Structures are given as structure tokens and as C-alpha cells.
């Protein structure tokens, strides 16, 4: 049976995922939390408290990715722009100024806690186009492996109206799903979703858990955004749809008080949107079922055994390549009998893949003239038939 929104509101709190089981966590921080709307400056004490919270999460062995807004809000005041709506070019100029302040503030506060931060500026193309998606994913994965905290924002200075997210809620959902995060936390000025916009509906009720995003749930969001914050609840629900369909839980929690992540761990009120699958399984299904394969890679028996035991596909095990594909596109992998054993996102275009087929990884540089990735298909980008339900 499908639960409606109001039924899901009555689901017992024990339906919430355990906070302690969330190993890779993306956290979105909105402009209104981080900046003072009167002075257009950073709220230093708030950022210090987030630094403490993230340090605690990292000490528990978790990986943290921050998606932080605030560049436009910080930059506009420095440029002397009057309050009110900004033209696109003014917003972009403000972001160029404010992003420097923002990145420096994170670097300073986190360094005091022994944490290295890294700035990642992305456009929708970087998270959605296959070729660039692999680059963004692999850079962020490397930073996480090395213990750093990536601080992501949209590359507002170059993104034009048609090709930008515009709000960081959806950007955060894309980043979280691209990184197969277990959960995405949207820190907001409100402690979750209510049955109606609370400012206009004093009797609106708080919703603890959403198991399915029905039209009834979507209708609960009011108008989008304010001058300082772009999305309102509308973009948060869109973000929730993106997240849960890719296996990432999403939670909306209040960031108004200091130490909001500690509060979340201690059971503060919030709204969880539940994903039905885990993010790794959901990504494998996406690779296997959603993407249209653009080519075929034939592999030998040794490579087939290596893949089945969880290894990446190296060029040495490839006996043939066909089709026209770009780096990052999906291909079918067939064994020596011509049977499909799985699909994957390939790290080289068709022409390059054919040239390195059968060669060992250390010959890649001499063959192609540049040092590419050792694996033709990384194990994280593989979906083998025997792994799928
Ligand atoms: N059904 C709803 N439940 C909760 N908040 C809602 C709802 N509909 C609209 N809102 C508004 O959405 C706001 C949060 O979004 P927003 O201002 O964009 O915050 P942020 O800066 O955190 O992205 C709330 O303060 C509230 O006014
Ligand atoms: N990329 C923009 C953020 C835009 C945005 O989504 O703001 P918010 O609604 O505060 O999360 C900036 O840094 O100003």
C-alpha cells in the first residue's frame, strides 16, 4: 500500500534512519544561516560552531561534504550594491567577490580544528555531463580519501541563466547523489517540512518522516524564496526527489541555533525523506538500467574473473572495443563467449580505448601521450549482472 503524505506524517519516529549509520554526509548551508542580512557579513560564531560539529563527525570516522551558499550575499555588500533584486551580471560580480571571503572563512575556521578544506566550484554540466561528471566525482572522492572536507558552491561567475542551478538545494542533491552519500542534510531557517507554509498557517503541522513524495507533499510548499535565499521549500522538495531516487536519504533541519549537527545527532526535530535503496545499489541500477549503452567492450576470462571478485577493468584484459562513445558514457561488457556480464562508465573515448586495449596500465602514457587513469572502468563505475537484484 502507498502511504499518503499525511499518513507518512504519523509514521513512528523509529522509521527514521539511524544518524550514527550515516557514514558519508553532504551538508547544505544556506546564505541566511551563514550571513547577517543587516551587515552582509559572515556570522563568525555560527561558522565556528559548524567547524566544531564537522570536526566531531570526522572524529567519528565519517566523511563530510559541505555545499555552501553565501557568495552573493557576502559579495554584494563589498561592492556597494543596494538591497533588492540583483541583475544577473551583478549577482555574478557579487559571487566573484564573496566566494573568496567564503572559501577563506571555511579554510581559517576548519584549519583551527585540524581540518583541510578544498574549494570545488561546479556548474550543472560538471555534475550531469558524463565526461565531466567522472572528473568531479573522482576529485571529490580523492579529497575525501585524503581526509579533506570539500566545500562546494555553484560556479556562479561563469554560469549563465539557462545553465545554472540558481539554488543550492538542487546542487547539493546532485553533489550528494554523484558522491553516493548516505544522507544529505539541508540546514535551513526552519526545522523541517510543515503541512503548509508556517508563516501564513499557524496551525500547520510538522512532518517527521516522508516515505514517498506524493503530489500532496509537493503541494505543502509555498512560494519560492526570499531576497537572500533562493529556493524556499519548493527547491527542497525537488532536491528530496533527486536524492531519494538515487538512494540518498535527505533531512531538513534547523540551523538557526549554534551546533545544528550536534542537535540533529541528539534527536532535534527535523523532517527525513527516506530513500528505499542504498546509494551504491541505486547507482549500479542507474548505470545498468537507465543509461543508454554507446558501445561494447570485450574482455578475456582473466578480466571477467577479476571483475566478479570486485576489481576494476584494466585495459590489459580487453580483447576488443566497438561503438562510438565518449569518456564517461555507458558501455556493455561482454566475456569471451559474447555474453553480457555487466555495464560500466568508461574512462576513455572509443578511439583511445581501442588503442590501449590489451596493453598494461603503465603503457597508457606512452600510447596516448598523456597519463590517464589506470582503469578503463573503475569498480565504482561498474554494474555487474550478478550484483543486481
Ligand atoms: N510547507 C512548508 N514547510 C516549511 N517551510 C516552508 C513551507 N513552505 C514554505 N516554507 C518556507 O521555506 C523557508 C525555507 O526555505 P529558504 O528560505 O529558501 O531557506 P534556506 O536559505 O535554508 O534555503 C521557510 O522559512 C518557510 O518560510
Ligand atoms: N551560489 C549562491 C547560492 C544561491 C542559493 O541557493 O542560496 P540559498 O537559498 O541561500 O542556499 C551563492 O553562493 O550566493
Automatic annotation (TrEMBL):
Q: What does this protein do?
A: Catalyzes the transfer of a phosphate group to glutamate to form L-glutamate 5-phosphate.
By its UniProt entry, which PANTHER family does this protein fall under? GLUTAMATE 5-KINASE (PTHR43654), ISOPENTENYL PHOSPHATE KINASE (PTHR43654:SF1)
Q: What is this protein called?
A: Glutamate 5-kinase
Which GO cellular component terms are attached? cytosol
Which CDD domains does the entry mention?
AAK_G5K_ProB, PUA_G5K
Family matches, as InterPro entries: AceGlu_kinase-like_sf, Asp/Glu/Uridylate_kinase, G5K_ProB, Glu/AcGlu_kinase, Glu_5kinase, Glu_5kinase/COase_Synthase, Glutamate_5-kinase_CS, PUA
Domain annotation PUA: ranges = 295-377
PROSITE patterns assigned: GLUTAMATE_5_KINASE, PUA
* Keyword entries, A-Z: Amino-acid biosynthesis, ATP-binding, Cytoplasm, Kinase, Nucleotide-binding, Proline biosynthesis, Transferase
Membrane-spanning regions, if any? none
Enzyme Commission numbers on file = 2.7.2.11
Q: Which Pfam families does this one have?
A: AA_kinase (PF00696), PUA (PF01472)
Organism, as annotated: Rhodomicrobium vannielii (strain ATCC 17100 / DSM 162 / LMG 4299 / NCIMB 10020 / ATH 3.1.1)
Binding-site residues, ATP: 28, 188-189
Amino acid at each position: 500500500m502507498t502511504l499518503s503524505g499525511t499518513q507518512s506524517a504519523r509514521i513512528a519516529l523509529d522509521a527514521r534512519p539511524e544518524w550514527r549509520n550515516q557514514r558519508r554526509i553532504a551538508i547544505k548551508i544556506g546564505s541566511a544561516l551563514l550571513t547577517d542580512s543587516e551587515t552582509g557579513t559572515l556570522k563568525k560564531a555560527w561558522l565556528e560552531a559548524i567547524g566544531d560539529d564537522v570536526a566531531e563527525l570526522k572524529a567519528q570516522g565519517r566523511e563530510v561534504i559541505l555545499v555552501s551558499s553565501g557568495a552573493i550575499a557576502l559579495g554584494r555588500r563589498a561592492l556597494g550594491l543596494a538591497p533588492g533584486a540583483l541583475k544577473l551580471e551583478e549577482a555574478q560580480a557579487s559571487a566573484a567577490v564573496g566566494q573568496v571571503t567564503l572559501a577563506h572563512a571555511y579554510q581559517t575556521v576548519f584549519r583551527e580544528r585540524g581540518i583541510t578544506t578544498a574549494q570545488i566550484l561546479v556548474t550543472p554540466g560538471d555534475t550531469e555531463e558524463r565526461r565531466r561528471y567522472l572528473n568531479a566525482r573522482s576529485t571529490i572522492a580523492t579529497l575525501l580519501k585524503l581526509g579533506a572536507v570539500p566545500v562546494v558552491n555553484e560556479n556562479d561567475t561563469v554560469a549563465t541563466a539557462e545553465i545554472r542551478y540558481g539554488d543550492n538545494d538542487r546542487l547539493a542533491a546532485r553533489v550528494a547523489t554523484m558522491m553516493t552519500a548516505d544522507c544529505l542534510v539541508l540546514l535551513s531557517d526552519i526545522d523541517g517540512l510543515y503541512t503548509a507554509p508556517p508563516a501564513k498557517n499557524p496551525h500547520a503541522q510538522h512532518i517527521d518522516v516522508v516515505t514517498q513524495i506524493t503530489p500532496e507533499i509537493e503541494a505543502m510548499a509555498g512560494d519560492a524564496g526570499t531576497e537572500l535565499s533562493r529556493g524556499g521549500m519548493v527547491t527542497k522538495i525537488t532536491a528530496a526527489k533527486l536524492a531519494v531516487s538515487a538512494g540518498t536519504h535527505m533531512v531538513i533541519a534547523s540551523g538557526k541555533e549554534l551546533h545544528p549537527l550536534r542537535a540533529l545527532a541528539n534527536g532535534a526535530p527535523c523532517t527525513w525523506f527516506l530513500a528505499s535503496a542504498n546509494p551504491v545499489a541505486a547507482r549500479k541500477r542507474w548505470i545498468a538500467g537507465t543509461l543508454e549503452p554507446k558501445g561494447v567492450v570485450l574482455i578475456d576470462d582473466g578480466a571477467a574473473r577479476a571483475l566478479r571478485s570486485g576489481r576494476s577493468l584494466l585495459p590489459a584484459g580487453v580483447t576488443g572495443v566497438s561503438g562510438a562513445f565518449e569518456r564517461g558514457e555507458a558501455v556493455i561488457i561482454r566475456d569471451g563467449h559474447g555474453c553480457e556480464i555487466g555495464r560500466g562508465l568508461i574512462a576513455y573515448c572509443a578511439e583511445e580505448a581501442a588503442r590501449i586495449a590489451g596493453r598494461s596500465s603503465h603503457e597508457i602514457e606512452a600510447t596516448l601521450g598523456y597519463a590517464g587513469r589506470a582503469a578503463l572502468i573503475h569498480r565504482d563505475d561498474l554494474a555487474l549482472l550478478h550484483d543486481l537484484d
